[in-house]
Amino acid sequence: MYFWIIISLFTVLYGCHSSSADQNKPKEIIQTALYDFDTTWRSDFDLDRTRLLESVQAAIIPSYQDWVIFENGSYIIFDHIDSILDPMKTAKRWLAHYSKLGRPTKDWSVSITDLDYSEGWSVFGNGYGIYTFVHILELKEGAPPKQIGNYAKWKRAKDEQVGKIIYLHNSDGLQSFQ
Prior knowledge:
By secondary structure, this protein is of the alpha+beta class. The protein is built from 5 helices and 7 strands. It has one domain (2-176). Helix content is 42%, strand content 19%. Strands 3-4-5-2-1-6-7 form a 7-stranded antiparallel beta sheet. It starts with a helix and ends with a strand.
């Protein structure tokens, strides 16, 4: 127990004082978040692409038609995607840019929305229009809001590292990417 506290403290202190803190941030958030939600995370549930798409579509207000979904559940809603030359590159750039605004700790403040038409939560952290979907079955029953938020941060950090967009929706309709 003390070992993990010391490791977490070292990670936070190193990340806040290192000149390469921005490069290490997703890895540090993953490590910190893993420590916090390890008791409520369910390893026996895999959120497949179809269920993720259906859940995020149900979470987004229908009047918002311009969005992208990343592989681990982060999604970005654009105001006017048709005015953006390369929406995929812009989405990745936004995710990378806004990741630098938070400290690499578990202290990010998040807003968690219970969804009416989907089983799970939409978690808003830092960054205009950037959310992360957490399915109710990804966590053990009764997970407190802190654990939901930390799991969403972990998923977002994974999307920041990999940056794989799996869906794009705009005026041309839905596009899927492998």
